[in-house]
Known about the structure:
Elements: H1 7-10, H2 12-26, H3 32-46, H4 49-61, H5 66-70, H6 83-96, H7 98-101, H8 105-114, H9 117-139
Amino acid sequence: MSLRFNYRKANPAAYEAMxxxxxxxAKGGIDPLLYELIKIRASQINGCSFCIDYHTKDLxxxxxxxxxxILLSVxxxxxxxxxxxxxxxxxxxxxxxxxxxxxxDSVYENxxxxxxxxxxxxxxxxxxxxxxxxxxxxxxxxxxxxxG
Length: 148
């Protein structure tokens, strides 16, 4: 696949709306490291190479270990993520694949052990935001390095 067109230039207002959405979430109080983990995990599920590349670099800039970045796709199998992170990652997977099973009560209850109702919504909004970015990137043919 090759870059079809630069959506930022084609529709600057849409790009600004997405930046506003992202800014809203960033100001919501989600830990920046956790937010990047959410972005990467959702992007892995959605198959967005541009966003995986972009957010992996952002996560590394925040000081995350290479091991935790590399093993994110198999987070259930390794003991290097906290229970709070695991709860958020599981919610990320269910919200990303919402049509398959919704969000089971057991997942909701586990997330609520670690996050308030407001924080739960913040997490859902974060998954929605990265999902929208993924869809923009995939639909316009973005790939790592294509935008400079």
